[in-house]
Amino acid sequence: MKYHIVQLGCQMNISDGERTQRVLEGMGYELTDKEEEANLLGVIACSVRQKGIDKVYSKVSKWNKWKNRKSLITFVSGCVLPADKEQFLKLFDLVFPMSELPNFPEIISQYGVVTPAGMQSLDKGLKDIEQPEKKSKNVSGFRLKPAELPKKTQQESVLETNAHIEDFWQIAPKYGSGFEAYIPIQNGCDKFCTYCAVPYTRGREVSRPSAEILDELKQLVDKGFKSITLLGQNVNSYGLDKKGNEISFAGLLEEIGRYGEKSGKDFWVYFTSPHPRDMGDDVLEAIARYSCLAKQIHLPVQSGDDRMLIRMNRKHSIDKYRKIIHSIHRLLPTATIFTDIIVGFTGETEEEFENTRRLMQEFKYNMAYIAQYSPRPGAASSRWADDIPKEIKKKRYHDLTEELMKHSLVYNQKMIGNTYKVLVRGKDRKTGYLSALTEGKIIIRFASEDETLLGTFVNVKVNSAVPFSTEGELIPDRK
């Protein structure tokens, strides 16, 4: 029996999917890349944009048609808004928050589904029993029906979402790579930005015990992992929900940095994503002290206009954000800076958009993930008019992208002639080339077909540049 999972959205969902795979394979299911071969089909959903939810409905619609000709179980988890959950209960066999993943085998068994592992166990128990008939008398099969659940308020649903998150963190992931890994350090968010659904899909902030985080990181480093990313909806508020009982985010980075120095191993640790309100110099100072803490900062700004930030409930000003950027340049002069920006948010004027463009000109980001605003049910802004036409959103998106490309090109051209330590990640789209990332996550491709280099650090000298990537030549080790 085989399973297939569709993973949508952010790195947190990818990490959730790795733990889901571990549970399913522990039940005896085998992974298949072809969904038509699977007996168990699931989605790790993303509610950040409507496009992600539309994909969920498209998938389950197709899968439910397949049930007319084969026995099939479908499930959905991940970031699911209460309104979507009501609809999903009618379409999927199983709907559950990711925190309930440890109970998935029990949930399946309660529905009367025999898993591959259960079948093996049953076969062992029955091998000495004489069976009078070879065929089952129940030839009609079964069809699961969603349980009738009592209606819950939105606040109750939010609290329920994180009810067993500590048990979820105990599940060892099935890592999708042998050299890159994600470690969740917290779940949920307390910021309630007006455009964001995360507090309603993942609940309030809960910090994972630092001892568990450090143990998982040490195990990964011992296994030879080279790039490790700490995950959370708001990583730099880590520990604030357990004041006096847990270290701060800066303290966690200190512990990781000290371990990195003692281990003698070569690896980079990243984190995503922080919130400007909670970002202090103590975090940047920790990164500056230790070589294993990567010199790359992803700091979402969302808008370059103070009035817009108030409407977004971002709880930081442009002046506060500017001071953080100045601290990054002062304490981490070689760091690259990434950000997130939303264009076309409710009521965004031409002046407010131009302030965002000017902010991009000022800070010269290496990368910006620019999104055209779409309202999400449950988020506060969903009650407001989505009053910016699609064509204006699209134009603003392209205008910012062009601005970003200019600054990316200038930075990348300055890399020409310099040699960089890079992590080789895979084959490049350019035939005969491999693709790698610098510590600052700048793409460098170089001519080589030696796949034994994947997952290793090498040195590459840059000889050409375009926006968002560079090209160079491999510098052989001198031994």
Write structural notes for this entry:
The chain has three domains: 2-122 and 151-157, Rossmann fold; 166-414, pyruvate-formate lyase- activating enzyme (Alpha-Beta Horseshoe); 419-475, Beta Barrel (OB fold (Dihydrolipoamide Acetyltransferase, E2P)). The protein is 36% helix and 20% strand. The protein is built from 15 helices and 18 strands. The strands form five sheets. A five-stranded parallel beta sheet has the order 2-1-3-4-5, with helices on both faces. A five-stranded mixed barrel has the order 14-15-16-18-17. The longest helix has 25 residues, at 390-414. Mean pLDDT is 87; it is low at 117-159.
Compute the CA-based radius of gyration.
24 Å
Which CATH C-level class of the largest domain is it? Answer: Alpha Beta
| Number of distinct helices | 15
Low-confidence stretches: 117-159
Shape-level CATH architecture of the largest domain: Alpha-Beta Horseshoe
Strand arrangement within the widest β-sheet reads 2-1-3-4-5
Mean pLDDT comes to 87
Short description:
The protein is of the alpha/beta class.
